[in-house]
Amino acid sequence: MGHDGGLSVPGLTYLLDLARLQGTGAEECFWVRFPGTPDPETLIHVAGESGVFWSHSGDETRQPFCDFPEIADISIKQASRDSQPVENRVVTITKTDNRILEVEFPSLREALSFVSLLDGYYRLTADAHHYFCKEVAPPRLLEDLENRCHGPIRTSTATCSQSAWRRRWGWTTSAA
Questions:
Q1: Burial classification of residue 113, based on how many CB atoms lie within 10 Å of its CB (0-12 exposed, 13-18 middle, 19 or more buried)
Q2: Are residues 129 and 146 in the same domain?
Q3: For the segment 33-53, what is each residue's pLDDT rounded down to a tens digit?
């Protein structure tokens, strides 16, 4: 039961909150720069209802990049200056049409925060059993994928059922 006396379905509360936020203009923004350019002048906007946009500092015109289901891949790599590694991280988002957006974040923490946000929205809108970056994937998702569980079944349920089935049929798990 949920805190309001109704049934509680995992994720339903989050989806209801997301639906309530639609139309309110709720978004996260990140100051970034395009690799090879001077100090941060670009703002990346991420909103549940409209996807990923970018704009230059002081410019109200937003350039759309993609909606979450259009994302094909996300990668993070360490930036470098004069062939020396620096703290900055470059995040590359590749769309299904092979267009890319490459932006540089001032730190790993900010890059991971951005990727985590995109990863979460992708799971909500496109594929609940997919992740782009292992560093930000929920541990339960990684465990379920490792144990080949999908859908509403949990790893603990699957392993318990498998153990009971093995005991019933006299199978052991020893290697040959």
A1: middle
A2: no
A3: 998 887 668 999 999 888 999
Task: Classify burial at 105, counting beta carbons within 10 Å of its beta carbon; exposed 0-12, middle 13-18, buried 19 or more.
Answer: buried
Has residue 61 been placed in a domain? yes
Structure tokens at 138: 């929920």
Distance CA 26, CA 92 (A): 24
Structure tokens at 83: 């062939």
Using only the alpha carbons of the chain, give its radius of gyration.
21
Q: Are residues 117 and 66 in the same domain?
A: yes
**105 in any annotated domain:** yes
Asked whether the whole model's pTM tops 0.70, one would answer: no
- In whole angstroms, give the CA distance from residue 166 to residue 32: 54
Number of domains in the chain: 2
